[in-house]
Amino acid sequence: MTHPKILLRQASATIFAALLPCLGGHAQDRCQAFNLETLPKREVRAVWLTTLSNLDWPKGYATTQEGIERQKRQLTEILDRYAEANINTVLFQARVRATTTYPSALEPWDRCLTGQEGRAPGYDPLRFAIEECHKRGMEIHAWLATIPCGPWTSLGCRRLRAKGLRLRKLDGAGYLDPSDERVAPYLASVCAELTEKYDIDGIHLDYIRYPDGWPRATRRNGDTPDNRRANINRIVRAIHEAVETRKPWVKVSASPLGKYSDLTRYSSHGYNARDKVYQDAQLWLKQGWTEQLYPMQYYRGNLSLRARLGGQQSWSHAGERTGHVVSRSERGTLDPRRYLAADGGEPMGGHGPRPLSVEVSDRKPQGHLRLRAALQPLSGPRPGHEGEARRPPCPTDGPPSGQWPHQLAGRRSLL
């Protein structure tokens, strides 16, 4: 039986637009090869707006009224650039490292706003961002880093330990222990607070996994790979239920590793979602716990994701439940047909790919996801205008003109 939330998405026609080589001369001839009735009508054109370490915003502290106005002005300028680049979805980093960019009853303010942990900036940045995004006809999703808690001595990390949550220290930083049964309801309460207080369009779960440096499963006292996946599943399900019961139209998305597991002919070289960091994101889609996936492509080479191989082991197969499967590639522009036929690449050392986005499902590109605020325009008409409905994402009057997005400036060094 199809999950009710999936039916809701289908009924609201939230589908991504496909690229059509049907523009320019002889368009009619070139369109004859396509079954137009099966092509998606809409697409997501998204970008992460990073507040961690002031990477994208803000570029100055709000310790005075002048500082507050400067932060607001900087944010509106960024959103104006997004609108010019035809972006219609903003993933705004609301939970940074057990700290927030909004007034929370559960966690302290992040230092990115004032330079000091726990200090209020004198306004509500998330509410302001929501208002400004909606003015421009853009969706805004609250982006949460779920498991990382920042430096071991940071205020957010200390507060979590004081609440009795179990954390593990890795390389001087704290991480929530997914096996602690208190973690799922706690993170769900954070998402519930966001959903209740704010007119957000989605909740985006980043780093919803075991950290890379976590010791391997001991297979003693219940510490098995299956149980570790069950621990992560428990968190995702709890968050889904917290959001669903409050505002069922709010989308829940996640960013798993870009390789689900090893395929018969293509190895992940020991770095994949299911077996390395214990993410069973296919299950999240099938159960309706998430509506969108943004796979993280931390692998060498342009053509690192085998998007449609091995049946049950492909992201595209899982995406058939919703049609929302988003992939990030390391660099360069991609021909979707070559991308879909690509070999798996080797893992990158450490963090920091130079991602460009491609969304792949059922051999059709689904949209674009950009990583940083330095954007070149996506081709095609502007996706939204003031006063337009935001649910579903703003339609395009036609397909993009056949160009994949260009290389972005900068990189995402931390997740």
Index terms:
415 residues, 14% strand, alpha/beta, 14 strands, three-stranded antiparallel beta sheet, disordered C terminus
Please explain how this structure is put together.
- By secondary structure, the protein is α/β, with parallel strands linked by helices.
- 25% of the residues lie in helices and 14% in strands.
- It has helices at 4-11, 27-31, 65-84, 125-135, 155-162, 183-197, 225-244, 281-286, 315-319, 336-340, and strands at residues 44-49, 89-95, 139-145, 148-151, 167-170, 173-176, 202-206, 251-254, 292-293, 327-329, 356-358, 360-361, 364-365, 367-370.
- A 7-stranded parallel beta sheet has the order 9-8-7-3-2-1-14.
- The chain is globular, with a radius of gyration of 21 Å.
Distance between the termini: 35 Å
H-E order? HHEHEHEEHEEHEHEHEHEHEEEE
Largest sheet: 7 strands, parallel
Helix content: 10-25%
What is the global morphology? globular
Coarse structural class: alpha/beta
Q: Residue ranges: pLDDT <50 for 5 or more in a row?
A: 6-34, 301-365, 381-415
- The neighbouring-strand order within the major sheet is 9-8-7-3-2-1-14
Please tally the β strands and state the result: 14
Q: State the oligomer.
A: single chain
Radius of gyration: 21 Å
Average pLDDT reading: 73
Number of helices: 10
Strand content: 5-15%
